[in-house]
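Running low. Got one?
___
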Amino acid sequence: MHLSTTYRNRSFLQLVGVLLVAAFAGLFTLYYVTDVLDRYFTEHSAYLARQAINNESESLRREALAHARIAASYRLAGDTQRQIGALHYYYQRTGQQNVQIFAPDGRLVHGDPDSSTALNDAQRELLTPDRDSTDGSSVGLIRTPDGPALAAAAVIPSVEEHQAPPLLFVLAQPIDDYELLQLGFDYGLTDLHIADERAPPDSRLQLAYVDGSPLFLSWMAPTFGRELLHNLLPVILGSALVLALLVALIARDALRNAARLVASYNQLNASRSQLESSEKRFRDIAEAASDWLWETDDQLRLVYLSGRFEAITHYRISDWLGRPLSDILDCEGQALRDWLESGDTGVLRCSYTDQLGNQRIGQLASRPIMRDGLCIGYRGAASDITERVREQRQIEHLALHDPLTGLANRAQFQSYLDENLAAAQPLTLLSLDLDRFKQVNDSLGHAAGDAVLKEVSDRLRQYTRAQDLVGRLGGDEFVMIICGPISRDSLDQLSQRIIERLGQPMDYQGNEIHIGTSIGTASAPEHARDADELMRCADVALYQAKKAGRETWRHYSGG
C-alpha cells in the first residue's frame, strides 16, 4: 500500500513538472511569435509608406509626361502664340487644375501665378529635367504656402526643328492631411500625416524637398503581436490552469480506478456510450450545418439525406430515397459515377433545380464507404455556392464595365484595342465628345447628366455589331471600335447617323434636352499600329472637328 502511494505521488509530481515545462515553452513561443509579428509589420509598414509615396510620384510623373505628349501634338509650326492658345483651349476644355507651362526663359505662359502650387524660379530650376533624362521628365517635393506638394515636370518637345524651343509642363498635387489619410487607407497605414524628427523612428519616413530640406511623414505603427499577446495570454493561462486541474483529477482517478477500468464489461459499456454519443453528435451537426449530407449504396442510389436537404432544395426527403444521385445533380464536364469511382479527394462543381424552379450551383465532396476491402457506397456533402458564384460574376462584370452606363470601361477598351492591334486586325477608332453636356449638369443637376449619359449609351449601342465595341472612358468621353475594313463613305455615313441620332431631343422629367457630339476617327494600321498612337490620332481628329464648329466629324489626316 505504501509502495502504491509513493508511486502515485511520484507520477503526479512528474506530470506537474511536464505541464510546467510545456506551459513555459508555450508562453516563450507565444512571446517570440508576437515579437516577430510586431517587427515584421513595423518594417512592412515603413516599406508600404515609401512605396505609397513612390507610386504617387511615379503616377504624377507619368501623368505629366502624358499631358506633355498631348500638348506636343497641339504645337503648330512657327507660331508660338497659336501654340499657347491651343494649349489654353485644351486645358480649359478638360478642366485640368494645377497645371503650369513655362517658356524656355522661365516665363509662365499658362497657369495661375497666384495659385498656392505656383512654382518660384528656384523650384522651377531644380525641377527642370536634366538634358540626359531618358524621357524628359522629373518629379519632386516642393514647399507651398499651404504645405508640401508633389510636382512633376515634363518637357513639351518641338515637333519639328524650325519650331519654337521646347516648353516645360508642370503638374502639381498638394499633399494635405486628407490626401495623406486617403493614401494611408489605400496602403493599410493608420493615421498617415506630416510630422517632424521627434516622431518615433519605427513609424517615421524621411523624404526630401527638391531644395534638399527634409520632410517627415509618420503613421501609427501596427502592434498586432502585442494585441494578440494581451488578448490570448489570459485565455491561455486560464486554460492551462483548468487543464492542469483536469489532468490532475483525471490522473488521480485513473490511477485509483485502474483495476476496474480493465474490466471488459465496463469497456463494452463505455464503447457503446461513445458510439451513441457520436451518432447523436453526427445527427446534430448534420441538421445544423448549412450543407446537406447524403449517402448512397454501391449503385449510387440514395439511402440517406440530412434534414438540410429539404430546407435548401424544398424537396421531400422521402421522394428521393432510392433514386440515383445523378437524378438531382448535373455535374459539369464529368460523369458523376466516374468522379466518385476515381477517388478524387477534391470537390466537383454541379448544378440542380430546386422545387421552386430556381437554378442552384453546388460543390460536391465525397468519400467511399469501405467494408472488408470493398466499396459498398459513398457518402459526402453538397454545398450551395450559388450566391458566391453570382457575386464573383458581378465582380468580374464591374471590373470591365462602366457602372453608370454598362458600357466597356477604360480597362476593357484598352485590352480589346491591344488584342486586336496585336492580331493585326484592321479597325477604326471613333472618339466622341458630347457638346453642351456641361450645360445640362449646370442647369438640371447631375441626375439629369447621368440620365443623358445612359441615353447616349443606349443610342450608341444601336450602331455597333457583335464584333464591335462601344465604351465610356469617363465624363462625356465615349469611344467606338469598328472591327474590320470600312470604306470612307461608309464611315462618313456612320458618323452622320450617330451625330443625327445623338442630336435628337431627350426627355428628362418633362424637360427637353438637346445635346450634340463631335467625332474624330483614326484607322489602324493606316494611321497607327499601337493603341496610344491610335488614340492620339483620334484625339487630333476630334480637336479638328471641335475647331470646325462642333457637331461634325473629321478623319485623321496626319500631323
Remarks:
- The chain has a mean pLDDT of 81.
